[in-house]
């Protein structure tokens, strides 16, 4: 009597592992501009938790933004309650290149 073969196990990847597969062709000109003066009046600062690439960090009570690792998901534009995010895609051919394998 033969034993049934177990299906191959899928390796679960962490989000950090997946992000490391991406390739970025960073433009000199930022495609997102943060008007950080508006962040000072923001109570909850949802961008700090919503950005999957952690492009927004809080340092000394101020929101600091860097666009270089942006995934172009648009979340920060949607969640900002003070319209502090001036958002656009990078110029054609620049920005993130996703790699899924
Ligand atoms: S578009 Fe997405 S990845 Fe880029 S900064 Fe905004 S939330 Fe972060």
**Secondary-structure class:** alpha+beta
Query: Ions, cofactors, ligands: which are bound?
Result: iron/sulfur cluster
The total of beta strands comes to 6
SSE ordering: HEEHEEHEE
Mean pLDDT: 92
What is the level-2 CATH architecture name?
A: 2-Layer Sandwich
Low-confidence stretches: none
Instruction: Give the CATH level 1 class.
Output: Alpha Beta
Rg, Å, rounded: 19 Å
* Euclidean distance between termini CA atoms: 38 Å
Give me the oligomer status: single chain
DSSP summary: helix tally? 3
Form type:
extended
Explain what this protein looks like in three dimensions.
The chain has 101 residues and is α+β, with helices and mostly antiparallel strands. The chain has one domain (15-97): Alpha-Beta Plaits. It is built from 3 helices and 6 strands; from the N terminus they run αββαββαββ. A two-stranded antiparallel ribbon has the order 1-6. It is extended. The mean pLDDT is 92. The structure holds iron/sulfur cluster (SF4). Iron/sulfur cluster (SF4) is lined by residues 32, 50-53, 55, 70-76.
């Amino acid at each position: 009597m033969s034993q049934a073969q177990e299906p191959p196990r899928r390796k679960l990847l962490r989000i950090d592992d997946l992000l490391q597969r991406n390739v970025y062709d960073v433009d000199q000109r930022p495609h997102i501009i943060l008007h950080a003066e508006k962040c000072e009046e923001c109570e909850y600062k949802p961008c700090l938790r919503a950005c999957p690439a952690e492009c927004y960090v809080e340092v000394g009570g101020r929101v600091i933004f860097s666009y270089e690792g942006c995934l172009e998901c648009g979340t920060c534009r949607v969640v900002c309650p003070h319209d502090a995010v001036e958002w656009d895609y990078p110029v054609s051919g620049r920005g993130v290149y996703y790699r899924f394998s």
